[in-house]
Specification:
about 25% strand; 10 helices; globular; alpha+beta
Length: about 350
């Protein structure tokens, strides 16, 4: 009933709430929190109450991927301010689907791939299929990227991310079993007890990740994979990313880079025959900083030497700079899915 109430409440969001012109705030008596500025604009333009839910905390600084950002938690997600990015990427969504599964100790890389393809959209990146009512709901919302009224698949991807499971049965917080499907930034739930359009609801992941909760009794507890080069490479491949012809690097493979840790080379054939990246298992944070600084300073010497560098714990990933940003960030996201 609580979930149904949240969606029924969307019928009233167009009514004026406690708005204060001086601060451009919009306040919600349901939770006694307000939204303002870029976060308010994003919330209102990209789905509002049905997609994000009510705010459950004020804007505040949090740590995301080792970096301090201003963010605000909502019932169903987290909105982050990234002023270093151009619009519309100056506000980004948290990956709460992934975060919740990690919080539960569940290895989403181990979820079985597509069980059916008839009438479904199969995503090669994760080998999962989205079908039926969930596919319809997924396509019905998106982040406004091109100014057009029609919602493109790219806009739906920007809002919900890729599927990281197929449809599966789980026990939710009310103790009942439902069919659900996990995405990078959301959990879609089928609620046949509700009339359309409330027969497909988004899980309250903002609520769930903001409080310590035990693992659901029905969920298998899986030890998260260790953060090392071998497991990161396996995760790249499981996510449908290129990581071919891997081999252990010797001193000659380092070139002028500091010979630190254990490096593993991998290729990205779609770029060129010898293009790819390296994954380094470093012994200390000091060694990681030295190696990272080498690649950063090398890029500063000339744009021709630019490469992507991402780090998590004491693992550093360096990738050929000719790889498009969107594709490079997919490698980054896989790396950051590991607990440091």
């Amino acid at each position: 009933m609580k979930r149904l109430f949240m969606f029924v409440a969307m019928m009233f969001v167009m009514l004026p709430l406690h708005a204060h012109a001086e601060s451009a705030q919009r306040c919600f008596p349901e939770t006694n929190f307000c939204i303002e500025g870029q976060i308010r604009t994003y919330w209102e333009q990209n789905g509002g109450l049905p997609v994000f839910g009510f705010p459950i905390a004020p804007q505040s600084e949090i740590t995301v991927d080792g970096k301090q950002v201003v963010a605000q938690r909502f019932e169903r997600n987290r909105l982050e301010l990234h002023p270093e990015n151009k619009r519309p990427y100056n506000v980004l969504l948290g990956r709460l689907g992934v975060d919740r599964l990690v919080q539960q100790g569940r290895d989403w890389f181990a979820f079985p791939g597509a069980q059916t393809t008839d009438g479904c959209r199969v995503f090669a990146e994760t080998k999962h299929a989205v079908c039926g009512l969930i596919l319809q709901a997924w396509r019905s919302n998106g982040v406004q990227l091109d100014g057009k009224k029609a919602i493109s698949e790219q806009e739906s991807l920007a809002l919900f991310g890729l599927p990281i499971s197929d449809l599966q049965t789980e026990t939710l917080s009310d103790g009942k079993e439902y069919q659900v499907q996990w995405f990078e930034r959301a959990r879609f739930e089928l609620h046949p007890e509700n009339a359309a359009p409330y027969n497909v609801l988004l899980g309250l992941l903002g609520n769930e990740t903001s409080q310590t909760q035990p693992v659901q009794a029905s969920a298998p507890v899986v030890k998260p994979p260790a953060l090392n080069a071998a497991n990161v490479l396996a995760a790249f491949k499981a996510a449908g990313l290129e990581a071919e012809n891997t081999y252990a690097m010797g001193p000659k493979d380092y070139g002028f880079a500091p010979y630190l840790g254990h490096g593993t080379r991998f290729l990205i054939p779609s770029l060129c025959n010898d293009c790819g990246g390296r994954i380094f298992d470093l012994d200390t944070q000091e060694d990681l900083t030295k190696l990272e600084s080498y690649y950063v300073n090398f890029a500063k010497a000339s744009a021709a030497f630019f490469s992507w560098t991402f780090k998590n714990g004491t693992v550093l990933v360096q990738i050929n700079g000719s790889l498009p940003e969107a594709q490079a960030f997919k490698y980054r996201d896989v790396l950051m899915s590991f607990a440091p």
